[in-house]
Amino acid sequence: MIRILILLTLITVLPLNAQMCPCEFGKDKGAKTLRNELGINAFNLHEELINFYSEKVKYVPTAFAGFTFKRHFNNFSLRAAYTYSQHDYSFKLDNPMNFNQNDGSGYNHDVRIGIEKTFNVSELQYFAGVDAVLNSGKYSGITEGFGDFLPYYKLPYNFTTTYYGLSPFVGIKYRFSKLLSASMETGLQMVGYSTNQSNLYQSEKGIALMVQPIRSLGINFHF
Prior knowledge:
The chain is mainly β. The protein has one helix and eight strands. The chain has a single domain, classed as Porin (Beta Barrel). It has an eight-stranded antiparallel beta barrel with strand order 1-2-3-4-5-6-7-8. Strand 6 and strand 7 (180-196) form a beta hairpin. The radius of gyration is 21 Å and the shape is elongated. The two termini are 34 Å apart.
């Protein structure tokens, strides 16, 4: 999966000479070319960055999460996107020597700027590309537990996260008409991250690779 996404991203960015503009639609050569596209993200599903040392991966669903704007040129498209997600969570570490449970809520602001390539101009279109991504989030809740050298505790916490990097993606689009289409994308997050945490958790820096099974699923307006 990772190799396929990286390969398609390279194919997208490098060969920008072929004429394959997604603004073309239908056989009416005299019709006005629609080079702008506004997409409403009705649903996405992404892997959570913070897992509180749990071995389980958590995927977060979000409805009506944001929007994407694309400007189509003859050989490629430029795009900008914003996504907002908010969710409740519960992570639990349970063994005879150390118990910890974190219940809380978090939200993220996600901004992207990127480039994509469309490979055909029929009603059913395939595309791939890569975004530069900047994400900021905030988490708060209650942590509860005990350990070898710790008595039982139950305390509030809060911290912020920031990550930035690249997000290769592939997608499919169906053009219902000249003005309307539906699309779905899937992708990866290859990012460096940092956390600014409360006294209960140490601040961290690192690199993460996260999966976005549904980067966006929504409807697009062409104008």
